[in-house]
Amino acid sequence: MTLLFGRRARLRWLHLIIGGALLMPYFLAALVIIGRLRPDPGPFSPLSHQLTAFVCALPMAAVTAFFAPARQLSVAAARALCGVPGDRPLADGPARTQQAQVRTVCWFTLHLALGGIVSGLTLAMPPLAGTIMALPFSQSMRDSRVFGLPEALDRPWILALLPFAGLAILVATAGCAALAGALLAGRAPVLLGPTPQDRLAAAERRAAELAVRNRLARELHDSVGHALSAVTLQASAARRVLDSDPEFVREALTAIEETTRRTVGELDSVLGLLRGGEDHGRSAATGPALDALDGLLERCGVSVSCAVRGDTGTVPAAVSREAYRIVQEGLSNALRHGGHGVPVELRVTVRAAELAITMDSPLPERAAVVRPGGGRGLCGIAERAVLLGGRAEAGPHDGGWRLAARLPLRTTGQESR
């Protein structure tokens, strides 16, 4: 009985009744048109007219399902009343593709067709069942011309079966409603679920969101990671010579102050992108570029010999920002592995079609301490270069360590300006 009269069955029955109510305006309009084409003198339309009107009302209802709100309303009603399995989600938003529109039309038409049938049964069968169940107990009803039984059926054993017949009609009506509701619930994920185009669009949105998150993670890693490495090493060096070289300590503290102040500004910029959301993060990408390279080299904590060839002002903004971060991460690696004051040779060359960055530093005498979880610096450099359509590599070279990056000046469009 739970399958026929349980909570889920009642909700699905209500969903079908709503479908019948939605069908009624189309049914009445079709009935009026058929009545004018095939006039009937009787006070009530014959059954043939009603069946024809029902069939004609369905195409009229299908046309309205092409309007944008139809899919969203259908999904909302199906979620609330149909009891769709949780592992088969329904699509959100309007139908954006032709396939989704066709599926919406099929669902809307099926809902209204089954709803019209179940609504008709709900209106007609309970009074009929009640009448049949009352006939054995009312002689006047059996004798009346409206409810009278044929003499062949007016027998005690037949009258005793009439209440069960009425009860069977009610159960059959509930069974029809339950079957129709189960059919709609089974078709809902197919007709109202995401289409392949919807899944592809969702995957593209997730990929775009992941790309933005990765870019912001790289910004935080390069900016904050460089600052922490520089501050840690400068503070360590200052502590060792605190008593013997006060002037060096003063310079180290000044460098720490400037580094942290600059990093706080960069951190505020990145957090502003996070607060602004994905679109803001794409369109309002900010950060230091090659024009701020002198300030970076001045207080980076290593001894840098820099040679710039070409006009860095002609470098596109996206390439200039990524180049700055690549240099910053290279200096962080040199500082982390070589220590304070390690000599670094940096060459930045602007060519006609690409920007070349080469950074040479000596290999450390002893292995550097590996941070818990490992670093992401070299991977981040490679990712930045690949996103611009370039390449980057790092490794031992002529007894030292070389970082080399080639960035095309015509970006591939994967990184916003």
Automatic annotation (TrEMBL):
The keyword Transmembrane helix applies. GO terms for molecular function: kinase activity. The chain crosses the membrane at residues 12-35, 47-68, 105-137, 157-185. Residues 213-276 form the Signal transduction histidine kinase subgroup 3 dimerisation and phosphoacceptor domain. It catalyses: ATP + protein L-histidine = ADP + protein N-phospho-L-histidine. The keyword RNA-binding does not apply. Its EC number is 2.7.13.3. Keywords: ATP-binding, Kinase, Membrane, Nucleotide-binding, Phosphoprotein, Transferase, Transmembrane, Transmembrane helix, Two-component regulatory system. It comes from the Bacteria. This is histidine kinase.
